[in-house]
Amino acid sequence: MAILRFLACTVAGLLSSCIDSREEYWLEAGGNGLAELTYSIPAAAAALHGGESGIREMIAVFLKKTPEISASSYQVVTEGNRLRVVVNATFDSALAMKEIVSGAALKTLPPAVSHLAGEITTDLSGRTIDFSRRISPSKALPGAAFLPKSQLEGHRMIYIMHLPSAPVESNATRVEDAGRTLVWDYPLTQAVKAPLITRFKMPVPIPWRLLAAIGIPSTLAACGFIAIRRRKSMRPFSSGNPDNLGL
């Protein structure tokens, strides 16, 4: 048992003591956008998943199985004792982020990735969208909260969102570009203690693909229902002649 405990602590230390992340998104007024995700982990931790070539293959499979991403590129390079992963992606709809983090393709990556991707919820009320993402670094990096603070210091988890207009509300740690850029910047020492919540509420420009994706189908369904009801109410009644049944 002591040996297993030692190995578990060693693996946890490799996965958590030196991780750095930076996720940056550019959201356009049309609802489409770009994303650049950069992660830096110890090369020794990457070796558990096949090293540089193994990580590269997993990312290629993930991108191939993710139709929400219309274009992408990636780099996996070893720099000294660190492995640096950079993924650039283009998506046609802001809803893509929600679909990606809950899609089956994410399961092709190590389990820790799903916790780092988190859970996304969106709520559209009128012309205002409420976006929230819950990220659980402590689940992705088991045992990190019990590591010495010195092993976690100097490493950060950063999330940046460039919006087409300033939100009416957010919990960003700082804002830039007249409020249109939201930054959530957390030291790893804080990130492993409790889930990270990135949230903002903003007016949606019209036309926007997000409105089309959510509003148009429900509107068409409502119109179809009304048309059916109206047609039924206008049908003449007859008990013997099919020609009078509107068939």
Describe the structure.
Helix content is 35%, strand content 33%. It is globular and about 50 Å long. The strands form 2 sheets. It has a 7-stranded mixed sheet. The chain has a 4-stranded antiparallel sheet with strand order 5-6-11-8. It has 247 residues and is α+β, with helices and mostly antiparallel strands. It has 9 helices and 11 strands.
Described by the principal axes of the CA atoms, the overall outline is globular
- Which series of helices and strands comes N to C? HEEHHEEHHEEHHEEEEHEH
Low-confidence stretches: 1-17, 210-247
The average pLDDT is 77
Structural class: alpha+beta
* Tally of individual helices: 9
Q: What fraction strand? A: 25-35%
Order of strands, main sheet, comes to 3-4-2-1-7-10-9
Percentage of residues assigned to helices: 25-40%
Tell me the distance between the termini.
Answer: 77 Å
The rounded Rg comes to: 24 Å
Beta strand count: 11
Q: Report the major sheet.
A: 7 strands, mixed
Indicate the topology.
Blueprint: H1 2-16, E1 20-27, E2 33-42, H2 43-46, H3 51-64, E3 69-79, E4 82-91, H4 95-102, H5 111-117, E5 119-125, E6 128-135, H6 137-140, H7 149-152, E7 156-162, E8 169-170, E9 174-176, E10 181-187, H8 188-191, E11 196-203, H9 209-234
Key attributes of the depicted protein:
alpha+beta, 35% helix, four-stranded antiparallel sheet, 247 residues, seven-stranded mixed sheet
Short structural summary:
With 247 residues, the protein is α+β, with helices and mostly antiparallel strands.
